[in-house]
Amino acid sequence: MILDTENTNNKVKSGLYIVSTPIGNLSDITLRAIEVLKKSDYVLCEDTRISKNLLDRFDIKSKLIPNHKFNEKKNLSKVIEILKSNYIVSLISDAGTPSISDPGAILINECLINKIDIFPIPGASAVSSAISISGFSDKYFFYGFFPQKQNKLKEDFEKLAILDCCVVFFISPKKFNKSIKEIKHYFLDRKILICREMTKFYEEFIRINVDKLEPFKSDPKGELTVVISEKTKEKNSSIILKESDKKNIQMMIKKLSIKDITDLISQYSDIPKKEIYNYCLKLKNEK
Length: 287
What we know:
Layout: E1 15-19, H1 31-39, E2 42-45, H2 48-57, E3 63-66, H3 72-84, E4 88-91, H4 105-113, E5 118-121, H5 126-134, E6 140-145, H6 150-160, E7 166-171, H7 173-187, E8 191-196, E9 204-209, E10 224-228, H8 243-252, H9 258-267, H10 273-286
Parallel strand pairs: 1-4, 1-5, 2-3, 2-4, 6-7
Antiparallel strand pairs: 7-10, 8-9, 8-10
Helix pairs in contact: 3-4, 6-7, 9-10
């Protein structure tokens, strides 16, 4: 079948366009995104300095309007008025697909109330990019950014840990370092992919088992996109720690780290690492 690229459905009509922009490498922008941005009367963006670099690169002259989490509610009536006047308005974020852990949902819902047409312009997404190279299950749950409060994080991890799919989240390196203990506790027997600076010059992909996780020695720049693999099918999940194992752990707990004890016990035992780790953690917390 030959697609009709000249179909009237492909023409840029008035309404709101949710335009995906590159997550790093500017060459990843789509031809359709460039076309829509060029024909837009206004482009709503998070940071005008970042968006101007993108627009200048592709000779796009559309007017930029700052639209970030601190002013999107204040902008709402003005933007809706513009859209009702049959203008073409595009919404972009600093990187990736708008409204995915970025401003956008408030405006989109207001457009729905006012029966204003909304059009998605697909493109780059840190979530799908990370999943595509993970080698994990293609069933995934996107969590978004970690909450500020550690108690809320533990509460959410408890729910996420029982899902039979991989989990994707965004996080700063500093926050990631602080959350390693919780990640190990809830996802111990899984694999993890840490993506940094994707599509940029210094992009880095770290693949490791969760139990081997160590903090970054220095905080690298930028946000991390992290994928935790789906649950491991534990054939030996019914096996529990023997009293002899518990005694050995009790003797080692003052001298060795939980990680070292878990590795040692698991070498001569069929007990799941999570079972060993949780018992060590229990002993530590009892002190």
